[in-house]
Write a structure and sequence with these properties.
alpha+beta, paralog of FGE (formylglycine-generating enzyme), 4-stranded mixed β-sheet, 8 helices
């Protein structure tokens, strides 16, 4: 089964959230102060060699081939039809199994820098977008809490009251087949990089790693920490709203577990040295 990929050409790009983005979120999304955005700051320049990245997250159909081959085990929700629709992203995959699948296919997990460049960078404009399609939120361009709820969510408590405590998440939460939403593509043509499912990347998570980097260090250094079993997750999911579905937002989970449950964590692959 062929994996559809798009090429991201070598060059510099910006990574992380700008001060302008953080201040806009503070002013327009209730419940968080600047501490929420510090793990994404400061925005900094990086250089990446050319790579190719999957257009879509790995689907249940694709993952089933690896299960049958004995490469990876079945995810916890594999027997539930709601979470194992053939053309929907696979969920409930640990970082170890995601990495194992990629290696079996001759690929690897993207670094956080690769993921973020593919999702949000426009080289023609020299601009980093807030969302893959641009700076303005459009709830219909991805599967998220607001598109499921069919109402805007403008803050942490708003999300909790309207979507979580109301039972809407439990009753109506689900994944959907890849490629259903128009206009969700990044400049490079990668899709579904906002909402849908969180995506594992290669890096270990460090809370304020960007502020620790030397300003002169522009290369794609994958963050490795032998004392940490936390890995970065990117992109937001169907559980999340406009704030967590931003390209710059970064969270984490244990390599062998799922911080938010087993129904909203997936992955995609990259090919290096092309």
């Amino acid at each position: 089964m062929t994996t559809e990929m798009v090429v991201v050409k070598r060059g510099c790009s910006l990574m992380g959230a700008s001060e302008e983005e953080a201040l806009f979120q503070i002013a327009n999304y209730e419940g968080y102060d600047i501490e929420r955005y510090k793990p994404e700051m400061p925005q900094h320049l990086i250089y990446l060699d050319t790579f190719a990245i999957s257009v879509f997250p790995v689907t249940n159909t694709e993952y089933s081939v690896a299960i049958k081959a004995g490469v990876v085990p079945s995810p916890p929700m594999w027997s539930h039809k709601k979470w194992s629709k053939p053309d929907a992203p696979v969920v409930g995959v640990s970082w170890f199994d995601a990495s194992r699948y990629c290696e079996w296919k001759g690929f690897s997990l993207p670094s956080e820098a690769q993921w973020e460049k593919a999702a949000g960078w426009n080289p023609l404009l020299g601009k980093k977008y807030v969302y893959p399609w641009g700076d303005e939120w459009d709830t219909n361009k991805c599967l998220n809490a607001e598109s499921i709820l069919k109402l805007p969510i403008m803050g942490k408590n708003d999300w909790k009251n309207k979507f979580w405590d109301s039972g809407i998440a439990l009753k109506h939460g689900q994944t959907e087949a890849v490629g259903l939403r128009n206009g969700d593509n990044s400049y490079y043509g990668a899709r579904m990089m906002s909402g849908h499912v969180w995506e594992w990347v290669e890096d270990n998570y460090e809370n304020n790693i960007y502020s620790k980097k030397q300003k002169s260090s522009y290369s794609n250094i994958i963050i490795k920490n032998q004392y940490s079993d936390f890995r970065v997750l990117k992109g937001g999911s169907w559980v999340d709203d406009r704030n967590s579905c931003r390209v710059s937002y970064r969270t984490f989970s244990r390599e062998s577990a799922w911080r938010y449950g087993v129904t909203d964590v997936g992955f995609r692959c990259v090919k290096n040295d092309i």
